[in-house]
From TrEMBL:
Organism, as annotated: Vreelandella lionensis
UniProt entry tagged with the keyword DNA-binding: no
EC class of the enzyme, as a word: oxidoreductase
The protein's name in its UniProt record: 2-hydroxyacid dehydrogenase
Family matches, as SUPFAM superfamilies: Formate/glycerate dehydrogenase catalytic domain-like (SSF52283), NAD(P)-binding Rossmann-fold domains (SSF51735)
Gene Ontology molecular function: D-lactate dehydrogenase (NAD+) activity
Chain ranges of the D-isomer specific 2-hydroxyacid dehydrogenase NAD-binding domain: 110-296
Domain D-isomer specific 2-hydroxyacid dehydrogenase catalytic: residue ranges: 3-327
Keywords from the UniProt entry: NAD, Oxidoreductase
Homology family: Belongs to the D-isomer specific 2-hydroxyacid dehydrogenase family.
Length: 333
């Protein structure tokens, strides 16, 4: 099958080419994000292969459809960036990689917790400058703290497991409690989680229900000094509200791997440009905020799985046999 791979970074090319070695697909790599401007690049390609910041709204899907695209193969688990209703109407099949390495994301969330707690990023810079003072680096024992997990799917449960290993108590909220959750995971209502957790980590998808779930009223219910971690999707957090929470001291630590306006920033080198997102730049001024640019998934294992599953989806679509991880349109999403 002819596949137009959008947002194709060198690492995507490496892993997809490797996974395609035993197959016969024709891969064309485009560095550009998929948008209405770049969609014409996919004319004549039966498959468009997209990542998290590609823009698959009704206009783009219509363009893909006109150009002969019948399959959108997402290299991500999340599919909030696809207008599934439009895809269904146009007869475009959407496939995704459901769980490429939940460990990668959960472990990165833990890395954010650990770094923020012990301020290792500040300590690193200090030591390089010959500054061995400890003021401002005071942490706390994780042991005995209460960790709130919002969304207990593949990633949330692994995160819960790791934090339980530190001796934390785990409270969780999920409208669909996971039968695979271990006995130490205490499901509680959201307001109880907010009231009890010292650390809150977001592992739910972006849906109409979770859009700006963490807003001013949610923050007001949290413990003063709470640590908030988001490796889910940017829009789950209302950035304006967390900036206010940081300024008032209500939020004590913020760790983000995702940001609601990340499309304009992440995965590219902007170091020689003026960044005009004032909200993002304000976030970077806080000493107790640690931001990574959507790298939680970025491990050898995850990239191998993403490439393998993406091409297996395409194989299954083409042959009509094998497992196709199809995203089914649900009016609620
Ligand atoms: P999953 O589908 O296994 O689990 C999601 C869980 O969230 C489910 O148990 C679901 O019931 C729950 N949920 C749904 N609505 C909820 C709500 N309103 N409140 C609380 N929980 C709710 O998904 P998985 O694989 O664990 O991934 C979670 C999210 O992590 C993805 O949707 C994606 O947005 C994000 N992600 C981020 C990556 C990164 O690199 N930063 C990489 C991969 C995923």
């Amino acid at each position: 099958m002819r596949i137009a791979v959008f947002s194709a970074k060198p690492y995507d090319q490496t892993f997809l080419t490797r996974a395609n070695a035993a197959r016969r697909h024709s891969l064309s790599f485009f560095d550009a994000r998929l948008t209405a401007e770049t969609a014409p690049l996919a004319v004549g390609f039966e498959c468009g292969c997209a990542f998290v910041n590609d823009h698959l709204d009704a206009v783009v899907l219509e363009q893909l459809h006109q150009g002969g695209t019948r399959l959108v193969a997402l290299r991500s688990a999340g599919f909030n960036h696809v207008d599934l209703a439009a895809a269904e109407r146009l007869g475009i099949t959407v496939a995704r990689v459901p769980a490429y390495s939940p460990h990668a994301v959960a472990e990165h969330a833990v890395a954010l917790v650990m770094s923020l707690n012990r301020m290792t990023f500040r300590a690193y810079n200090r030591v390089r400058e010959g500054n061995f003072a400890l003021d401002g680096l005071l942490g706390f024992d994780l042991h005995g703290k209460t960790v709130g997990v919002i969304g207990t799917g593949h990633i949330g449960l692994i995160f819960a497991d790791i934090m339980h290993g530190f001796g934390c108590r785990i409270v969780a909220y999920d409208p669909y409690p996971n039968p695979e959750a271990k006995a130490f995971v205490e499901y509680v209502p959201l307001d109880t989680l907010y009231a009890q957790a010292d650390i809150i980590s977001l592992h739910c998808p972006l849906t109409p229900d979770t859009d700006h779930l963490i807003n001013a009223s949610a923050i007001a219910q949290m413990k003063r000094g709470v640590m908030l971690i988001n490796t889910g999707r940017g829009r789950v957090v209302d950035t304006h509200a967390v900036i206010a929470g940081l300024k008032s001291g209500h939020i004590g630590y913020l760790g983000l791997d995702v940001y609601e306006e990340e499309e304009q920033l992440f995965f590219e080198d902007h170091s020689h440009k003026v960044i005009d997102d004032d909200q993002f730049m304000r976030l970077t001024t806080f000493h107790n905020v640690l931001i990574t640019g959507h790298q939680a998934f970025f491990t050898q294992e995850a990239l191998t799985n993403i490439a393998e599953t993406t091409l297996a989806n395409i194989d299954a679509f083409e042959s009509g046999s094998g497992t196709l991880h199809r995203v089914v349109y649900d009016k609620r999403t």
